[in-house]
Amino acid sequence: MRGVIPGLASGVPIAQRLPGVYQEEEFAQRFVSTFDDALAPVIATLDGLPGYVDPWLAPTDFLEWVAGWVGVENDETWTDAQRRAIVAGAALVHRRRGTARGIEDAVRLTIAEDCRVEVVESGPAQAPVVTVRVHVADADAVDVRRVDALVTGVKPAHVAHVVEVVAAAEGDG
Question: Please, what are the domains in the chain?
């Protein structure tokens, strides 16, 4: 739970930043120390800000907020670790959006880090089609409809696609 911490000392006391003439003035020291009490929570928040926006460090309730910044919609089937990896990799996926590598990255992040994803493009000689083949240990555990919806979202709109989920061969993965 986040909130006010009673008696929080300022990490940057204002009295220490006063010109030398006021350093020994008792009234000036007491007067500016009241600002320290008011500013300590602000300074502590700013000092800890990276911990709130970094997907690997953010509290779980903030992670969904950070996910919204990078355009990731929460999926209740994702584990906390998987959600953090997806949010952390979202900028890269957006940068590669519409490319074979972007499709591969998005599917790997969403399905499992240990899966192998093949993206085969039809080439310029025919109507564009992308075949996405996902090799996983347990093919029945993967919801093909979710993978299909993901590929629909990251591939170019004019390109047709086929999704295949297959059991990985021994040593494949």
Answer: 14-53 (no CATH), 99-173 (3.30.70)
